[in-house]
Each structure stands twice: as C-alpha cells, then as structure tokens.
C-alpha cells in the first residue's frame, strides 16, 4: 500500500473518493493528471468545489453521487412522479455523531431528484429545520431535518403528505456494503467513457 497518490495512480483505472471536501479536490486534480476515472460520494462540498468537479468532467468521466445506493435512486424518483401536486415533502435523515455536514449529501441529492422528477425549479424554496414561531408552509417547499447520534450508518425518510394521508419511503443502510456495491457499479458504468458528469440516476438508467 502506497501513501504516494501519484505513484498509486500509475496503473489505476478509477479513483474512489469518499473523503472530505479538501481531499476530494486533490483527488479530482490527481485524476486529471493521470487520466483516471473518478467515482466520488464526498459530501459537504461548496458550490465552488462542485463547480470544480463539473469543469473536470469536461475532460474525464466522473460519477458524482452522494447517495451510492441504486435502490434509493430508483424508488424515490418514481414515487416523486406519482405524488406531485397536492403533496408536501419532508426529508428526515440520520447519521453517526461524527458526521459534520447537514443536511446530508444524500438528502440534498434526494431533494434534487424529487424536483427534477416533478419538473420543479432546483432553486425553489427549501426549509432547514424549524424553531420557534414559524410561518405557514410555502407551497412547493421541501423541508429537511437532521439527526446526529451514535453509530447510525445512514437513514433517510421522505414524507409525501397529502390531505388525509401520508406516504413514507425510508431507506436504512445497515452496513456500508451497499455503498461499496454502488461504487463498484459506478466504476463499471464509466468503462469506455471519455468524459461527462453522471449520478446514480444515469447509472441505473432513470434518465
């Protein structure tokens, strides 16, 4: 095992990056230097850091997927098309106590996927937690709540709440194996591709 990134990439085909934002940017730059494909699920990236990934994808293929479970991508986007008009949406996520970004990257990706499936503007209203006296819920808003405790691997629940009914879709990761399987699937998807930015919806063929 080598700690020299450039040496390690001499014979590599893919970089798997599940680190922190500063390290992710370094891995993007290294992948460009060595013409290596990239699969990243790093969360907490700033808009500037995400733009760096987008720019790099013009020259190399990248799967950028904060949610590595293919099952989440397939189920949620389909449900979003069914529960569109007249349904409020809430996203509740829970992770281990050491996680430093909130909402989770998966929760934000869920938000984007729901808006895309429902053909809503991606920059429309989002609500991050509630405290004290709050205003009436805005039509079309998607709200987030974050839980941080113990050793929870990752849990995400999306509520589609209509008049007199509520549909809940919950994904619980019982181990990180689901993420590993998703990352390997991503790497296979990138085989033969020369450039482009992709997510799990592309990988599982939803779009």
UniProtKB/TrEMBL annotation:
Listed EC numbers: 1.17.1.8
Keywords: Amino-acid biosynthesis, Cytoplasm, Diaminopimelate biosynthesis, Lysine biosynthesis, NAD, NADP, Oxidoreductase
Protein name per its UniProtKB record: 4-hydroxy-tetrahydrodipicolinate reductase
UniProt xrefs under Gene3D superfamilies: Dihydrodipicolinate Reductase, domain 2, NAD(P)-binding Rossmann-like Domain
Catalytic activity: (S)-2,3,4,5-tetrahydrodipicolinate + NADP(+) + H2O = (2S,4S)-4-hydroxy-2,3,4,5-tetrahydrodipicolinate + NADPH + H(+); (S)-2,3,4,5-tetrahydrodipicolinate + NAD(+) + H2O = (2S,4S)-4-hydroxy-2,3,4,5-tetrahydrodipicolinate + NADH + H(+)
Biological or metabolic pathway of the protein: Amino-acid biosynthesis; L-lysine biosynthesis via DAP pathway; (S)-tetrahydrodipicolinate from L-aspartate: step 4/4
Pfam families for this protein: DapB_C, DapB_N
One term of GO molecular function: 4-hydroxy-tetrahydrodipicolinate reductase
Domain of life: Bacteria
Span of domain Dihydrodipicolinate reductase C-terminal: 74-203
Domain called Dihydrodipicolinate reductase N-terminal: residue spans: 2-68
Similarity comment: Belongs to the DapB family.
UniProt-listed InterPro entries: DapB_C, DapB_N, DapB_N_CS, DHDPR_bac, NAD(P)-bd_dom_sf
């Amino acid at each position: 095992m080598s700690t020299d990134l450039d040496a390690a990439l001499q014979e590599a085909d893919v970089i798997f990056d599940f680190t922190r934002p500063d390290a992710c940017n370094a891995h993007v730059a290294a992948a460009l230097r060595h013409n290596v494909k990239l699969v990243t699920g790093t969360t907490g990236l700033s808009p500037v850091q995400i733009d760096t990934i987008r720019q790099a994808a013009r020259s190399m293929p990248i799967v950028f997927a904060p949610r590595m479970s293919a099952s989440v991508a397939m189920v949620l986007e389909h449900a979003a098309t069914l529960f569109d008009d007249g349904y409020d949406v809430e996203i509740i996520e829970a992770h281990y106590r050491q996680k430093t970004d909130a909402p989770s990257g998966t929760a934000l990706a869920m938000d984007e996927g729901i808006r895309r499936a429902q053909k809503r503007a991606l920059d429309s209203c989002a609500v991050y937690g509630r405290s004290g006296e709050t205003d009436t819920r805005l039509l079309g808003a998607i709200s987030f709540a974050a839980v941080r405790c113990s050793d929870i691997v990752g849990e995400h629940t999306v509520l589609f709440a209509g008049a007199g009914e509520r549909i809940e879709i919950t994904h619980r990761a019982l181990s990180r194996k689901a993420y590993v399987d998703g990352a390997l699937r991503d790497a296979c998807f990138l085989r033969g591709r020369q450039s482009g930015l992709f997510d799990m919806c592309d990988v599982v063929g939803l779009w």
